[in-house]
Structures are given as structure tokens and as C-alpha cells.
Amino acid sequence: MAEGAFPEPSRRGFLNWFLGTAAGAFVLSVLYPVSRYLVPPEVTESTAGTVTLAIKPEEVKPNSGQIFKFGSRPGILVRTSQGELRAFTAVCTHLNCTVQYRPDLQHIWCACHNGHFDLNGRNIEGPPPRPLDAFVVNARGNQIIVSKGA
Prior knowledge:
Blueprint: H1 11-38, E1 50-53, E2 64-70, E3 73-79, E4 85-89, E5 100-102, E6 107-110, E7 115-117, E8 123-125, E9 134-140, E10 143-147
Antiparallel strand pairs: 1-10, 2-3, 3-4, 4-9, 5-6, 6-7, 7-8, 9-10
């Protein structure tokens, strides 16, 4: 076997390789979560057209509202003071904040920029440029079924 084909391993070479590998692993372990935070994975729109809520119609009191999940986005179910059930998307049309029902105002309110929507989903005050998307609500027995279209 010819001498000089493979260099003699040295302690300094091993330490340089070990520290370089450890530093590279550290940099990757820091950059990966930061990059996942800055560029989150794309959430696709749900194709679900109908959702059955886990709450019963009698559990929704008059002049109240509840947030529910409609696919990947929130929805809001409102029982008016007259007892009618209505549902809308709970995403404000201004900057995509989640809206809520305000019993004291008796309408839907966005806390981010003080947007107000009536119980038909129309924006009545504040910066939202368009109304909330309305859903169709059907109460069948002990179930509340919310769907996108008629």
C-alpha cells in the first residue's frame, strides 16, 4: 500500500470537522423554525358546503351569538331577540379579524377597527367595505345545520 494515499487523521482535523458540523446543525435548527414562522404553510379553503353544529337549537338563547368552525374559517351563529337563527362568516371584511355578537348593541361587532354589522350581515358603521357572507341555517330536531347556499 502506498504511503500518502490517505492522510493521517489528526486531532485538529477531527475537531474542525466536529465543530463545523455542530455549528451548521445549530444554524439550521434556528433558521428552520424562523422560516416556517415567516412563511407559514398555505391553508386551502375548505370545500365543505355544509356543517352540522355540536350545539342544540334550544342551547342558543335569544339575543346571543356563538362562534363555530365552518371548514377552516370561523362562522358566527346568532339568535335574534325575536328567536330567529342566522349565520354568517365570522371573518370581518376589513382585515380578516374575527367578529363577535354584542348583546348590548344587538348586532355583530369587529373589535379590531370598530366595525359594526346588522343582523342581516350588512356593514352599518366602521371601515368594513362589504357585508358579511351569509349562510343558510336549518334547525332539524336537535341539530343545527349551516350551509353556504340554498
